[in-house]
Amino acid sequence: MPLRLYNTRTRAVEPLKPLEPDHVRVYVCGLTPSAEAHLGHARSFLFFDVLRRYLEHPRNGWRVTYVQNVTDIDDRSIATAQREGTTFDRVVARYYAAFKEAMRVLNVREPDVEPYATKYVPEIVEMIGQLIERGLAYATDDGVYYDVAAFPRYGALSGKNVDELLVGARIAENEHKHDPLDFALWKFAKPGEPQWASPWGSGRPGWHIECSAMSRALLGVPFDLHGGGYDLIFPHHENEIAQSEPLMDAPPMAEMWVHGGLLNFENRKMSKSLGNFEPLTDLLKRHDPFAIRLLFLQTGYQKPMNFTEESIAAAKSSLDKLVSVFKRAESAEIEPAGPGGTVEAPAAHRAALFAHLDNDMNTAGALGILHDLAGDLLRYDDPRVRDEGLSLMREVFGLFGIEAALDRERPVEFDEQFVERLRRRLGPELHPSTGSGQSLNGESPEAAIESVIAKRNEARKNKDFALGDRLRDALAAEGVALKDSKDGTTWTVAGA
Ligand SMILES: [Zn+2]
Protein backbone atom coordinates (compact mmCIF):
# COMPACT_ATOMS: atom_id res chain seq x y z
CA MET A 1 0.00 0.00 0.00
CA PRO A 2 1.37 3.43 -0.86
CA LEU A 3 1.67 6.30 1.56
CA ARG A 4 -1.74 7.61 2.58
CA LEU A 5 -2.37 10.88 4.37
CA TYR A 6 -5.37 12.59 5.88
CA ASN A 7 -6.45 15.26 3.44
CA THR A 8 -8.30 18.12 5.16
CA ARG A 9 -9.75 19.14 1.78
CA THR A 10 -11.57 15.86 1.15
CA ARG A 11 -11.80 14.77 4.82
CA ALA A 12 -10.44 11.36 3.89
CA VAL A 13 -7.21 9.38 4.17
CA GLU A 14 -5.94 9.21 0.59
CA PRO A 15 -2.88 7.95 -1.26
CA LEU A 16 -0.40 10.67 -2.14
CA LYS A 17 -0.06 10.63 -5.94
CA PRO A 18 2.45 13.20 -7.20
CA LEU A 19 1.10 15.33 -10.07
CA GLU A 20 4.50 15.22 -11.79
CA PRO A 21 6.13 11.79 -12.00
CA ASP A 22 8.39 11.15 -8.99
CA HIS A 23 8.33 14.77 -7.84
CA VAL A 24 6.39 16.02 -4.83
CA ARG A 25 5.91 19.77 -4.51
CA VAL A 26 5.26 20.90 -0.95
CA TYR A 27 4.41 24.31 0.49
CA VAL A 28 4.36 24.74 4.26
CA CYS A 29 3.39 28.02 5.91
CA GLY A 30 6.44 29.29 7.72
CA LEU A 31 7.12 31.54 10.65
CA THR A 32 6.21 35.15 11.26
CA PRO A 33 9.45 36.10 13.00
CA SER A 34 8.18 39.13 14.86
CA ALA A 35 8.58 37.60 18.35
CA GLU A 36 10.39 34.72 19.99
CA ALA A 37 9.38 31.27 18.75
CA HIS A 38 8.33 28.56 21.23
CA LEU A 39 8.09 24.79 20.94
CA GLY A 40 4.49 25.02 19.72
CA HIS A 41 5.75 26.74 16.57
CA ALA A 42 8.29 23.98 16.04
CA ARG A 43 5.86 21.06 16.21
CA SER A 44 4.50 21.41 12.71
CA PHE A 45 7.98 21.97 11.19
CA LEU A 46 9.26 18.85 12.97
CA PHE A 47 6.41 16.81 11.53
CA PHE A 48 6.87 18.07 7.98
CA ASP A 49 10.60 17.37 8.32
CA VAL A 50 9.87 13.70 9.06
CA LEU A 51 7.27 13.56 6.28
CA ARG A 52 9.79 15.04 3.84
CA ARG A 53 12.41 12.47 4.87
CA TYR A 54 9.87 9.69 4.29
CA LEU A 55 8.84 11.02 0.86
CA GLU A 56 12.51 10.93 -0.16
CA HIS A 57 13.23 7.59 1.53
CA PRO A 58 13.77 4.72 -0.98
CA ARG A 59 10.44 3.28 0.16
CA ASN A 60 8.76 6.18 -1.74
CA GLY A 61 11.78 7.51 -3.63
CA TRP A 62 10.31 10.86 -4.61
CA ARG A 63 12.20 14.04 -5.28
CA VAL A 64 10.77 16.75 -3.04
CA THR A 65 10.68 20.49 -3.53
CA TYR A 66 9.94 21.94 -0.12
CA VAL A 67 9.02 25.61 0.13
CA GLN A 68 8.52 27.28 3.50
CA ASN A 69 7.88 31.00 3.51
CA VAL A 70 8.89 33.73 5.91
CA THR A 71 6.22 36.31 6.74
CA ASP A 72 8.76 39.07 7.15
CA ILE A 73 6.31 41.96 7.38
CA ASP A 74 3.38 42.20 9.76
CA ASP A 75 1.83 44.58 12.28
CA ARG A 76 3.86 43.19 15.16
CA SER A 77 7.30 43.48 13.55
CA ILE A 78 6.45 47.06 12.57
CA ALA A 79 5.29 47.86 16.12
CA THR A 80 8.39 46.28 17.68
CA ALA A 81 10.65 48.19 15.28
CA GLN A 82 8.93 51.49 16.15
CA ARG A 83 9.22 50.77 19.87
CA GLU A 84 12.91 49.88 19.61
CA GLY A 85 13.76 52.66 17.17
CA THR A 86 14.95 50.22 14.54
CA THR A 87 13.62 48.82 11.25
CA PHE A 88 11.20 45.90 10.76
CA ASP A 89 13.78 43.90 8.79
CA ARG A 90 16.25 44.07 11.69
CA VAL A 91 13.56 42.79 14.07
CA VAL A 92 12.74 39.96 11.66
CA ALA A 93 16.42 39.09 11.09
CA ARG A 94 17.01 38.78 14.83
CA TYR A 95 14.05 36.49 15.56
CA TYR A 96 14.49 34.49 12.39
CA ALA A 97 18.17 33.81 13.11
CA ALA A 98 17.22 32.44 16.55
CA PHE A 99 14.52 30.26 14.97
CA LYS A 100 16.92 28.94 12.30
CA GLU A 101 19.48 28.08 14.96
CA ALA A 102 16.81 26.20 16.94
CA MET A 103 15.81 24.30 13.78
CA ARG A 104 19.48 23.41 13.22
CA VAL A 105 19.81 22.11 16.78
CA LEU A 106 16.61 20.10 16.29
CA ASN A 107 18.09 18.68 13.07
CA VAL A 108 15.25 20.00 10.91
CA ARG A 109 16.46 20.14 7.33
CA GLU A 110 16.56 23.50 5.58
CA PRO A 111 13.72 24.19 3.13
CA ASP A 112 14.71 24.10 -0.56
CA VAL A 113 13.31 27.60 -0.93
CA GLU A 114 12.62 30.05 1.89
CA PRO A 115 10.88 32.99 0.25
CA TYR A 116 10.55 36.27 2.14
CA ALA A 117 7.22 37.95 1.41
CA THR A 118 8.83 41.36 0.83
CA LYS A 119 10.90 39.85 -2.00
CA TYR A 120 7.70 38.82 -3.84
CA VAL A 121 5.84 42.13 -3.90
CA PRO A 122 5.64 42.25 -7.75
CA GLU A 123 4.04 38.77 -7.83
CA ILE A 124 1.66 39.75 -5.01
CA VAL A 125 0.66 43.00 -6.75
CA GLU A 126 0.10 41.11 -10.01
CA MET A 127 -2.17 38.61 -8.29
CA ILE A 128 -4.22 41.32 -6.55
CA GLY A 129 -4.63 43.00 -9.96
CA GLN A 130 -5.99 39.77 -11.41
CA LEU A 131 -8.45 39.38 -8.53
CA ILE A 132 -9.74 42.96 -9.04
CA GLU A 133 -10.11 42.26 -12.79
CA ARG A 134 -12.24 39.19 -12.05
CA GLY A 135 -14.47 41.15 -9.71
CA LEU A 136 -13.15 39.34 -6.62
CA ALA A 137 -11.50 42.29 -4.93
CA TYR A 138 -12.03 46.01 -4.54
CA ALA A 139 -10.03 49.02 -3.43
CA THR A 140 -11.17 51.33 -0.62
CA ASP A 141 -9.44 54.27 0.99
CA ASP A 142 -7.47 52.12 3.44
CA GLY A 143 -6.51 49.23 1.20
CA VAL A 144 -7.62 46.48 -1.17
CA TYR A 145 -10.01 43.80 0.09
CA TYR A 146 -11.08 40.36 -1.07
CA ASP A 147 -14.83 40.13 -1.67
CA VAL A 148 -15.76 36.89 0.11
CA ALA A 149 -19.36 36.97 -1.21
CA ALA A 150 -17.99 36.69 -4.78
CA PHE A 151 -16.46 33.27 -4.09
CA PRO A 152 -19.28 30.76 -3.48
CA ARG A 153 -16.99 27.95 -2.30
CA TYR A 154 -15.68 30.04 0.62
CA GLY A 155 -15.67 27.90 3.77
CA ALA A 156 -15.32 24.54 1.96
CA LEU A 157 -11.91 23.66 3.43
CA SER A 158 -12.75 24.48 7.04
CA GLY A 159 -16.38 23.40 6.80
CA LYS A 160 -17.49 26.81 8.01
CA ASN A 161 -20.76 28.31 6.94
CA VAL A 162 -20.57 31.89 5.69
CA ASP A 163 -23.93 32.86 7.23
CA GLU A 164 -22.86 31.56 10.63
CA LEU A 165 -19.54 33.34 10.32
CA LEU A 166 -21.38 36.59 9.67
CA VAL A 167 -23.18 36.36 12.99
CA GLY A 168 -21.06 38.29 15.43
CA ALA A 169 -18.59 39.50 12.80
CA ARG A 170 -18.19 43.24 12.77
CA ILE A 171 -16.15 45.75 10.86
CA ALA A 172 -13.60 47.49 13.02
CA GLU A 173 -13.77 51.28 12.94
CA ASN A 174 -10.47 51.69 11.13
CA GLU A 175 -11.48 49.35 8.29
CA HIS A 176 -13.42 50.40 5.23
CA LYS A 177 -14.43 47.04 3.80
CA HIS A 178 -17.90 46.22 2.48
CA ASP A 179 -18.54 43.02 4.39
CA PRO A 180 -17.22 41.79 7.76
CA LEU A 181 -15.73 38.59 6.23
CA ASP A 182 -13.76 40.45 3.54
CA PHE A 183 -10.06 40.43 4.27
CA ALA A 184 -7.19 42.72 3.33
CA LEU A 185 -5.04 41.92 0.31
CA TRP A 186 -3.15 45.20 0.48
CA LYS A 187 -2.93 47.69 3.33
CA PHE A 188 -2.11 51.30 2.59
CA ALA A 189 0.81 52.59 4.63
CA LYS A 190 0.33 54.91 7.58
CA PRO A 191 2.97 57.62 8.02
CA GLY A 192 6.32 56.13 8.98
CA GLU A 193 5.41 52.56 8.00
CA PRO A 194 7.42 50.47 5.51
CA GLN A 195 5.77 50.58 2.09
CA TRP A 196 5.95 49.36 -1.48
CA ALA A 197 4.39 50.91 -4.58
CA SER A 198 1.19 49.49 -6.07
CA PRO A 199 -1.35 50.74 -8.64
CA TRP A 200 -3.80 51.41 -5.77
CA GLY A 201 -1.45 53.25 -3.44
CA SER A 202 1.73 52.41 -1.59
CA GLY A 203 1.48 49.99 1.30
CA ARG A 204 2.17 46.35 2.12
CA PRO A 205 0.60 42.97 1.41
CA GLY A 206 -1.87 41.20 3.68
CA TRP A 207 -0.67 37.94 5.17
CA HIS A 208 -2.90 35.56 3.18
CA ILE A 209 -2.06 36.81 -0.31
CA GLU A 210 1.66 36.27 0.34
CA CYS A 211 1.29 32.48 0.47
CA SER A 212 -1.00 32.39 -2.58
CA ALA A 213 1.43 34.44 -4.67
CA MET A 214 4.60 32.70 -3.48
CA SER A 215 3.29 29.15 -3.88
CA ARG A 216 2.08 30.00 -7.38
CA ALA A 217 5.41 31.65 -8.30
CA LEU A 218 7.68 28.95 -6.85
CA LEU A 219 5.79 25.68 -7.25
CA GLY A 220 3.12 26.49 -9.82
CA VAL A 221 -0.51 25.56 -9.23
CA PRO A 222 -1.80 22.96 -8.73
CA PHE A 223 0.90 21.47 -6.50
CA ASP A 224 0.85 18.34 -4.38
CA LEU A 225 0.74 19.17 -0.72
CA HIS A 226 0.02 22.28 1.33
CA GLY A 227 0.84 22.01 4.99
CA GLY A 228 0.61 23.99 8.18
CA GLY A 229 -0.63 23.89 11.75
CA TYR A 230 -4.26 23.12 12.50
CA ASP A 231 -4.87 26.74 13.53
CA LEU A 232 -4.13 27.88 9.96
CA ILE A 233 -7.11 26.06 8.36
CA PHE A 234 -9.31 29.04 9.08
CA PRO A 235 -9.01 31.73 7.99
CA HIS A 236 -5.50 31.56 6.50
CA HIS A 237 -5.81 28.50 4.26
CA GLU A 238 -9.45 29.20 3.45
CA ASN A 239 -8.32 32.62 2.23
CA GLU A 240 -5.41 31.20 0.25
CA ILE A 241 -7.88 28.97 -1.64
CA ALA A 242 -10.26 31.89 -2.22
CA GLN A 243 -7.40 33.93 -3.70
CA SER A 244 -5.73 31.20 -5.76
CA GLU A 245 -8.45 28.96 -7.14
CA PRO A 246 -10.63 31.47 -9.05
CA LEU A 247 -7.53 32.33 -11.11
CA MET A 248 -6.86 28.68 -12.04
CA ASP A 249 -8.26 26.67 -14.93
CA ALA A 250 -8.39 23.47 -12.90
CA PRO A 251 -8.51 23.85 -9.12
CA PRO A 252 -7.70 22.79 -6.41
CA MET A 253 -4.53 24.79 -5.76
CA ALA A 254 -3.16 21.86 -3.74
CA GLU A 255 -4.26 18.24 -4.04
CA MET A 256 -3.66 17.57 -0.36
CA TRP A 257 -3.99 19.82 2.64
CA VAL A 258 -2.21 18.37 5.64
CA HIS A 259 -2.49 19.91 9.10
CA GLY A 260 -0.55 19.23 12.26
CA GLY A 261 -2.11 19.32 15.73
CA LEU A 262 -1.36 22.04 18.24
CA LEU A 263 0.73 21.86 21.36
CA ASN A 264 -0.22 22.69 24.93
CA PHE A 265 2.18 23.25 27.78
CA GLU A 266 1.16 21.74 31.10
CA ASN A 267 -2.43 21.70 29.76
CA ARG A 268 -2.46 25.29 28.58
CA LYS A 269 -1.60 27.18 25.46
CA MET A 270 1.89 28.67 25.85
CA SER A 271 1.65 32.42 26.11
CA LYS A 272 3.42 35.32 27.73
CA SER A 273 0.21 36.39 29.46
CA LEU A 274 -0.25 32.98 31.11
CA GLY A 275 3.33 33.10 32.38
CA ASN A 276 4.25 29.72 30.87
CA PHE A 277 6.19 31.09 27.92
CA GLU A 278 9.62 29.65 27.29
CA PRO A 279 11.54 30.64 24.15
CA LEU A 280 12.55 27.69 22.02
CA THR A 281 16.23 28.58 22.37
CA ASP A 282 15.98 28.35 26.19
CA LEU A 283 14.06 25.08 26.10
CA LEU A 284 16.75 23.56 23.88
CA LYS A 285 19.36 24.40 26.51
CA ARG A 286 17.50 22.23 29.01
CA HIS A 287 16.47 19.30 26.84
CA ASP A 288 18.02 16.85 24.41
CA PRO A 289 16.72 17.91 20.96
CA PHE A 290 16.50 14.28 19.86
CA ALA A 291 14.32 13.49 22.88
CA ILE A 292 12.02 16.34 21.78
CA ARG A 293 11.80 14.80 18.29
CA LEU A 294 11.02 11.42 19.81
CA LEU A 295 8.37 12.92 22.08
CA PHE A 296 6.51 14.40 19.09
CA LEU A 297 6.71 11.10 17.22
CA GLN A 298 5.00 9.37 20.15
CA THR A 299 1.80 11.34 19.42
CA GLY A 300 -0.09 11.23 16.14
CA TYR A 301 0.81 14.38 14.18
CA GLN A 302 -2.81 15.50 13.98
CA LYS A 303 -3.62 15.07 17.65
CA PRO A 304 -3.38 17.90 20.10
CA MET A 305 -0.48 17.23 22.43
CA ASN A 306 0.36 18.23 25.96
CA PHE A 307 3.99 18.98 26.74
CA THR A 308 5.05 18.39 30.33
CA GLU A 309 8.41 18.10 32.06
CA GLU A 310 7.46 14.50 32.87
CA SER A 311 6.72 13.67 29.23
CA ILE A 312 10.06 15.01 27.98
CA ALA A 313 11.94 13.19 30.75
CA ALA A 314 10.20 9.96 29.74
CA ALA A 315 11.04 10.52 26.06
CA LYS A 316 14.67 11.13 27.02
CA SER A 317 14.88 7.89 28.95
CA SER A 318 13.18 6.04 26.08
CA LEU A 319 15.76 7.47 23.65
CA ASP A 320 18.63 6.53 25.95
CA LYS A 321 17.30 2.99 26.20
CA LEU A 322 17.12 2.58 22.42
CA VAL A 323 20.63 3.99 21.96
CA SER A 324 22.00 1.82 24.73
CA VAL A 325 20.54 -1.37 23.20
CA PHE A 326 21.95 -0.38 19.81
CA LYS A 327 25.42 0.08 21.31
CA ARG A 328 25.28 -3.22 23.14
CA ALA A 329 24.16 -5.09 20.03
CA GLU A 330 26.88 -3.33 18.04
CA SER A 331 29.47 -4.73 20.43
CA ALA A 332 27.88 -8.17 19.95
CA GLU A 333 26.33 -8.46 23.40
CA ILE A 334 23.75 -11.24 23.38
CA GLU A 335 20.90 -11.86 25.79
CA PRO A 336 19.31 -15.26 25.36
CA ALA A 337 15.55 -15.18 24.78
CA GLY A 338 13.57 -16.47 27.75
CA PRO A 339 11.62 -19.68 27.42
CA GLY A 340 8.75 -19.21 25.01
CA GLY A 341 10.09 -15.79 23.98
CA THR A 342 9.64 -15.24 20.25
CA VAL A 343 12.15 -13.34 18.18
CA GLU A 344 10.97 -11.64 14.98
CA ALA A 345 13.26 -11.26 11.99
CA PRO A 346 14.33 -7.71 11.07
CA ALA A 347 12.42 -8.01 7.78
CA ALA A 348 9.17 -8.58 9.70
CA HIS A 349 9.84 -5.51 11.86
CA ARG A 350 10.64 -3.50 8.75
CA ALA A 351 7.35 -4.43 7.06
CA ALA A 352 5.33 -3.63 10.18
CA LEU A 353 7.10 -0.33 10.72
CA PHE A 354 6.58 0.97 7.19
CA ALA A 355 2.97 -0.19 7.21
CA HIS A 356 2.44 2.19 10.15
CA LEU A 357 4.11 5.09 8.36
CA ASP A 358 2.13 4.45 5.18
CA ASN A 359 -1.02 4.64 7.28
CA ASP A 360 -1.19 8.43 7.61
CA MET A 361 2.27 8.70 9.17
CA ASN A 362 1.41 6.71 12.27
CA THR A 363 4.74 7.44 13.92
CA ALA A 364 3.49 6.24 17.31
CA GLY A 365 2.85 2.79 15.83
CA ALA A 366 6.23 2.86 14.08
CA LEU A 367 7.95 3.72 17.36
CA GLY A 368 6.25 0.75 19.00
CA ILE A 369 7.83 -1.49 16.34
CA LEU A 370 11.18 0.23 16.86
CA HIS A 371 11.00 -0.77 20.53
CA ASP A 372 10.09 -4.34 19.50
CA LEU A 373 13.11 -4.37 17.22
CA ALA A 374 15.29 -3.09 20.07
CA GLY A 375 13.91 -5.89 22.23
CA ASP A 376 14.99 -8.47 19.66
CA LEU A 377 18.32 -6.88 18.75
CA LEU A 378 20.18 -8.48 21.66
CA ARG A 379 18.66 -11.86 20.82
CA TYR A 380 19.85 -12.20 17.24
CA ASP A 381 22.72 -14.65 17.67
CA ASP A 382 23.45 -14.81 13.93
CA PRO A 383 25.80 -11.86 13.24
CA ARG A 384 24.30 -11.29 9.78
CA VAL A 385 20.79 -11.01 11.18
CA ARG A 386 22.05 -8.75 13.94
CA ASP A 387 23.72 -6.48 11.36
CA GLU A 388 20.47 -6.37 9.44
CA GLY A 389 18.65 -5.38 12.63
CA LEU A 390 21.27 -2.75 13.44
CA SER A 391 21.10 -1.20 10.00
CA LEU A 392 17.29 -1.13 10.13
CA MET A 393 17.50 0.71 13.44
CA ARG A 394 19.99 3.20 12.01
CA GLU A 395 17.80 3.69 8.94
CA VAL A 396 14.72 4.43 11.05
CA PHE A 397 16.67 6.77 13.32
CA GLY A 398 17.72 8.60 10.13
CA LEU A 399 14.11 8.81 8.98
CA PHE A 400 13.16 10.31 12.33
CA GLY A 401 16.07 12.77 12.21
CA ILE A 402 17.75 11.38 15.33
CA GLU A 403 20.51 9.30 13.76
CA ALA A 404 23.30 11.31 15.39
CA ALA A 405 22.11 10.01 18.79
CA LEU A 406 23.50 6.61 17.79
CA ASP A 407 26.97 8.05 17.42
CA ARG A 408 27.11 9.65 20.82
CA GLU A 409 28.79 8.08 23.82
CA ARG A 410 26.76 5.27 25.33
CA PRO A 411 24.28 6.98 27.65
CA VAL A 412 24.43 6.38 31.37
CA GLU A 413 21.49 4.18 32.28
CA PHE A 414 19.42 5.38 35.18
CA ASP A 415 16.57 3.29 36.39
CA GLU A 416 13.11 4.81 36.43
CA GLN A 417 13.04 5.48 40.17
CA PHE A 418 16.37 7.35 40.24
CA VAL A 419 14.92 10.86 40.49
CA GLU A 420 12.26 9.80 42.97
CA ARG A 421 14.87 8.14 45.24
CA LEU A 422 17.16 11.14 45.00
CA ARG A 423 14.27 13.43 45.89
CA ARG A 424 13.38 11.37 48.95
CA ARG A 425 17.00 11.21 50.02
CA LEU A 426 17.33 14.98 49.83
CA GLY A 427 14.18 15.67 51.83
CA PRO A 428 12.02 18.77 51.33
CA GLU A 429 14.43 21.28 52.90
CA LEU A 430 17.23 20.29 50.55
CA HIS A 431 15.09 20.34 47.42
CA PRO A 432 17.00 22.20 44.77
CA SER A 433 14.55 24.58 43.17
CA THR A 434 15.41 26.08 39.86
CA GLY A 435 14.65 29.70 39.03
CA SER A 436 11.26 28.79 37.61
CA GLY A 437 10.26 27.17 40.89
CA GLN A 438 10.46 23.59 39.64
CA SER A 439 11.66 20.95 42.03
CA LEU A 440 12.97 17.54 41.05
CA ASN A 441 9.56 16.35 39.92
CA GLY A 442 9.54 15.25 36.32
CA GLU A 443 13.13 16.15 35.61
CA SER A 444 15.43 13.85 33.70
CA PRO A 445 18.10 12.22 35.92
CA GLU A 446 20.77 14.36 34.24
CA ALA A 447 18.81 17.57 34.90
CA ALA A 448 18.13 16.49 38.50
CA ILE A 449 21.85 15.93 39.10
CA GLU A 450 22.64 19.32 37.57
CA SER A 451 20.05 20.97 39.88
CA VAL A 452 21.64 19.40 42.95
CA ILE A 453 25.09 20.53 41.78
CA ALA A 454 23.78 24.07 41.28
CA LYS A 455 22.33 24.07 44.81
CA ARG A 456 25.61 22.76 46.20
CA ASN A 457 27.59 25.48 44.39
CA GLU A 458 25.27 28.07 45.87
CA ALA A 459 25.71 26.59 49.36
CA ARG A 460 29.49 26.61 49.02
CA LYS A 461 29.43 30.19 47.80
CA ASN A 462 27.48 31.07 50.98
CA LYS A 463 30.11 29.19 53.01
CA ASP A 464 27.51 26.63 54.07
CA PHE A 465 29.87 23.70 53.62
CA ALA A 466 27.79 21.37 55.77
CA LEU A 467 24.84 21.76 53.35
CA GLY A 468 27.20 21.34 50.39
CA ASP A 469 28.48 18.09 51.81
CA ARG A 470 24.99 16.77 52.52
CA LEU A 471 24.03 17.41 48.89
CA ARG A 472 27.19 15.70 47.67
CA ASP A 473 26.53 12.73 49.97
CA ALA A 474 22.95 12.37 48.70
CA LEU A 475 24.25 12.06 45.16
CA ALA A 476 27.02 9.68 46.24
CA ALA A 477 24.46 7.44 47.94
CA GLU A 478 22.77 7.14 44.53
CA GLY A 479 26.06 6.24 42.84
CA VAL A 480 26.82 9.69 41.43
CA ALA A 481 30.35 10.91 42.16
CA LEU A 482 31.27 14.60 41.87
CA LYS A 483 34.60 15.95 40.78
CA ASP A 484 35.44 19.61 41.40
CA SER A 485 37.97 21.44 39.30
CA LYS A 486 38.68 25.07 38.45
CA ASP A 487 36.35 24.69 35.44
CA GLY A 488 33.43 23.60 37.57
CA THR A 489 31.91 20.37 38.81
CA THR A 490 31.53 17.25 36.69
CA TRP A 491 29.80 14.01 37.61
CA THR A 492 30.20 10.33 36.84
CA VAL A 493 28.07 7.33 37.67
CA ALA A 494 29.65 4.35 39.38
CA GLY A 495 29.86 1.37 37.07
CA ALA A 496 29.05 3.34 33.90
ZN1 LIG B 1 0.56 30.56 4.54
**Strands ordered across the widest β-sheet:** 4-3-9-10
Which residues sit in consecutive blocks of at least 5 with pLDDT less than 50? 434-438
Q: Which CATH first-tier class of the largest domain would you pick? A: Alpha Beta
Domain tally: 3
CA radius of gyration: 27 Å
Q: What is the CATH superfamily of the largest domain?
A: HUPs
Proportion in β-strands: 5-15%
Shape summary: globular
Annotated CATH architecture of the largest domain: 3-Layer(aba) Sandwich
Instruction: Give a count of the beta strands, DSSP E runs of length 2 or more.
Output: 14
* Major sheet size, sense and barrel closure: 4 strands, parallel
- At CATH level 3, the topology of the largest domain is Rossmann fold
Helix content: 40-55%
End-to-end distance: 45 Å
Bound small molecules, by name, code or SMILES, are: zinc ion
Order of helices and strands: EEEHEHHHEEHEEHEHEEHHEHHHHHHHEE
Q: If you average the pLDDT, what whole number results?
A: 91
Q: Which structural class best describes the helix and strand composition?
A: alpha/beta
Kindly report the oligomeric state of this protein.
single chain
The total count of helices amounts to: 16
Describe this structure in words.
With 496 residues, this protein is α/β, with parallel strands linked by helices. It has 3 domains: 19-265, 3-Layer(aba) Sandwich (Rossmann fold); 287-407; 418-493, no CATH class. Helices cover 42% and strands 14% of the residues. It contains 16 helices and 14 strands. The strands form 5 sheets. The chain has a 4-stranded parallel β-sheet with strand order 4-3-9-10, covered by helices on one side. A 4-stranded antiparallel β-sheet has the order 5-6-7-8. The chain has a two-stranded antiparallel ribbon with strand order 1-2. The protein binds zinc ion.
